[in-house]
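Pipeline run #58 for the internal structure catalog. This entry was flagged by the ingest filter as a single-chain record with no existing model, so it goes straight to prediction. Upstream metadata was stripped on purpose; only the residue string is passed forward. Reviewer on rotation: M.T. Logging verbosity set to normal.
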Amino acid sequence: MSFDVRRECDRIIEFINSVIRTYNFKGAVIGVSGGIDSAVVLALLVQAVGREKIKALILPERDSSKKSVEDAKLVCKTFGVNYELHNLSAALRGLGVYSLFPPAILIPESVKIQYSRNRWQKYDDPYILDLKNEGDEEFLKGIAYYRSKHRMRMCKLYMEAEKCGYCVVGTTNKTELLLGLYVKWGDDSTDIEPIKHLYKTQVFELGKYLNVPERILSKKPTPDLIPGITDEDAFGITYEEVDSVLMDLERGIERTDPAGLRVKKIMELTKLRELKSLGPLD
């Protein structure tokens, strides 16, 4: 679905400014992960409110990749935004999150990655189980484990924002929303979502236009919560394939592939993610 990248950037910048004015925010807080989404939103924020009114937070924890932290720093430096780095490990440990699985402080990252992949491959379709909140006891512990990290990040972002009268700016895109790749009361809890109407592949187009570093543009998207597991590992399908099908579905175009598996899988994910959109149960 083609679109005018420059015009889209201008529209988003005006949208951000409109929200800031309407709700009398003094600035914006954003969590910078080192991925394409937060890089694009940060670049747009710079143009919308100015560097001096942005509080960029890098929020790693015990299982975060060191490369992701360095990428997050690179993004902030590229766009001239000062950042604060807050390690959330102590808070998560105090909550009891790390007690769910063996200590990993002295374990090499390569071993963590292999361990995570082995656990992931143990199940036929772990992402479907995740969306359904199903699985064995070990799997359910894993769900609680990684979702707690998202929610702790949300708490930190809001604490810092409310100290300054700033708004919390989210970085979720349309593909993630449609397929349920977010955590309820975690990264879906923000004041403003500037790119939630854009598919992931469109976000990459904005990234190129906004001069996001090539290192960020070329890396595989990952939530950086489970070592070695990327977004596409979760889906079992590439973002290009996902977005192609989602765009056709949006336009009412029927799609099939040789086995019908990709379209069937994507439609199943879009239906299951509706469970996440439910509010508190009556």
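catalog note: Residues 113 and 228 are 5 Å apart (CA to CA).
catalog note: The mean pLDDT is 88.
status: ready for reviewer M.T.
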